[in-house]
Write a structure and sequence with these properties.
Elements: E1 3-5, H1 28-45, H2 49-54, H3 59-133, H4 142-166, H5 170-203, H6 205-223, H7 230-247, H8 259-265, H9 276-282, H10 289-296, H11 303-307, E2 320-322, H12 331-350, H13 357-389
Parallel strand pairs: 1-2
Length: about 400
């Protein structure tokens, strides 16, 4: 039988009760029926004998009005009860979450510590790189600016992933890694193709602004928002038209900024639409596409996204509908995030001469490898702990294929 699970944890060896399955404390159907009965009784009690005598002729209307009023009163009553119960409920919820996160930290702590070391080094290396190479006012170095901004974004996404993992949201962390993978792909491509490509990359912001403006204008009234003025729309359209005239019609595509660089390598892209997959192929990281697709399941509302939950506990299999955090499934997003962050950092540092660049990159690679081993060990320990407590019945899926191992390349 499938169970609806808010939180899950394998009971640790110290005997603490680790299982938590929030059960419904409020039978909404029963309360609804009670409210309907009470509402009808109140409505009937308020009728005079003459009104009761005429009720047969207007019975349907009477029932409809009474039910509507009862539903409205019931909703208000439910809200008030929830507010009254909120202090105790929130205290319990937050207390359990704090204990849960503490136990996640105890189990995955070594991996988290190494991850934070990688992130700290990447941040400091990026800060040093930017301050050392930032061009004087009035001078443009589009590659430098693009890579610096991409590294800053990579650092922030890595921080976001770690916050999610520490809270027990592995699949969400994997989804955020997907964004970081895109950052790494774009950084590699810009570094490889130089200043013209980077300039087009920044210019393409006007294309995205124009397309976003058109979409907003179409729905502004429905959203209750104020549309852009004609002056603003015309100015954005002029910027867009000027870019299309300068770079060609394909520049208006989502990845139009990469069109010329792709076409220089492969003439098919003189006419063919540029895509992220094409950029990925150009920089030689197309082998990561299966992992990218795996991470996409946590983003989209496709069938795989609701039937495949990588952060279920080994003993849960497909018999739980996970609605909250879990201690499992943290290895893949944790390790892959560090690999992508190291990749963006290395690409950025290598774009300028620096005596310590090689040393910093080697240190990041070593720390990333050690973090990967720590994540893998914690994953295997969790599986062993879960299987010690429960042996699945024949034919039941454990839902616990080993983590995908990511390798620097």
């Amino acid at each position: 039988m499938v169970s609806w699970s808010l939180l899950g944890w394998v009971t640790p060896d110290d005997g603490r009760d680790g299982g938590y399955r929030q059960r419904m404390e409020y039978d909404y159907d029963e309360k609804f029926r009670e409210s309907m009965e009470d509402g009808l009784e109140r409505a009937l009690e308020g009728l005079t004998p003459e009104q009761l005598a005429k009720l047969e002729d207007n019975f349907d209307s009477f029932i409809s009005t009474s039910v509507s009023q009862a539903i409205e009163d019931s909703a208000k009553g439910l809200v008030e009860r929830l507010k009254q119960d909120a202090p105790g409920m929130l205290e319990h919820r937050r207390g359990w979450q704090a204990e849960f996160e503490q136990r996640v930290a105890e189990h995955w702590g070594s991996a988290f510590d190494l991850a934070e070391m990688v992130m700290k080094v990447a941040f400091e290396a990026g800060e040093f790189f930017y301050e050392k190479h930032v061009p004087p006012d009035g001078q443009h170095d589009f590659v430098f600016e693009a890579l610096s901004r991409l590294l800053a974004r990579a650092c922030r996404i890595a921080e976001e992933v770690l916050v999610l993992l520490k809270a027990g949201y592995g699949q969400a962390g994997l989804a955020r890694w997907r964004a970081l993978d895109e950052v790494a792909i774009v950084a590699d491509f810009i570094a490889e193709n130089g200043d013209d490509c980077a300039e087009r990359y920044f210019a393409h912001e006007a294309v995205e602004t124009w397309r976003g403006m058109l979409e907003f204008q179409q729905h502004a009234e429905s959203l209750g928002e104020t549309p852009y003025s004609e002056t603003e729309v015309e100015a954005a359209k002029r910027r867009y038209d000027a870019l299309i005239e300068r770079y060609g019609s394909r520049f208006g595509d989502p990845y139009g900024w990469a069109q010329a660089a792709l076409a220089a390598k492969d003439q098919r892209y003189a006419k063919q639409k540029a895509t992220l997959a094409a950029i990925e192929l150009s920089v030689g990281t197309q082998h990561m596409r299966p992992y990218y697709r795996m991470a996409s399941h946590g983003i989209h509302a496709n069938p795989k996204g609701i039937t495949w939950t990588p952060d279920l506990l080994p003993t849960d299999g497909r018999e739980s509908l996970l609605t909250g955090p879990s201690p499992a499934g943290l290895a893949d997003p944790g390790h892959s995030t560090l690999i992508s962050l190291t990749r963006v950092t290395a690409t950025t540092l290598a774009s300028k001469k620096g005596e310590a660049t090689g040393l910093i990159i080697l240190a990041l690679l070593q720390l990333t490898d050690e973090a990967g081993e720590a994540y893998l060990q914690a994953h295997h320990d969790l599986e062993v702990r879960g299987r010690r407590r429960s042996v699945p019945a024949a034919g039941n899926s454990t839902g616990s294929a080993g983590p995908v191992r990511f390798h620097w390349s």
